[in-house]
Specification:
- By secondary structure, the protein is α+β, with helices and mostly antiparallel strands.
- The chain is built from three helices and seven strands, in the order αββββαββαβ.
- Strands 2-1-5-6-7-4-3 form a seven-stranded antiparallel sheet.
- The longest helix has 16 residues.
- The protein is globular, with a radius of gyration of 15 Å.
- The relative contact order is 0.23.
- The model has no long low-confidence stretch (mean pLDDT 93).
């Protein structure tokens, strides 16, 4: 496992949305996700409200990537994911997601949670270090 730099963790937690990618049978799928949070420097949680194709891909191939950026630059985090849709850890995330989304006027719930176990972190900041392996 690799450890995400603090700047990467902060960006994941503070960015409105990120691009979450999966792949199955050589066909990539990328979706925007907004309900994501760093659990620790080696783990990112992505809540599943609408991950139909992504979840099907994840069940066939656990390798995923999450990209996040702002006006200054960004990060790509790659690793393997596990999925939970029951148990205390899932219940805690589902309650948090429901509270946040209902406060925004949405009636969506978390169907499950992907836990991305970080294996590599790359820079996606333009310039000479674009694509550089950071961790």
């Amino acid at each position: 496992m690799a450890k995400m730099p603090q700047a990467c963790q902060d960006m994941i937690n503070n960015a409105y949305a990120a691009a979450f990618s999966t792949c199955s049978d050589g066909v990539p799928n990328v979706v925007p996700v907004s309900m994501k949070q760093v659990i620790d420097d080696e783990t990112v949680m992505v809540s599943d409200q609408y991950l139909g194709k992504s979840l099907a891909n994840l069940r066939q191939n656990p390798h995923v990537a999450l990209s996040v950026w702002d006006d200054e630059g960004g990060f790509q985090v790659k690793g393997s994911a596990t999925y939970e849709n029951e148990g205390p850890r899932y219940e805690a995330v589902a309650a948090q997601v429901k509270e946040i989304l209902s406060s925004m006027g949405y009636d969506f719930t978390s169907k499950g949670v992907c836990y991305l176990h970080v294996e590599e972190v790359y820079s996606v900041t333009p310039g000479e270090h674009a694509g550089k392996l950071l961790a």
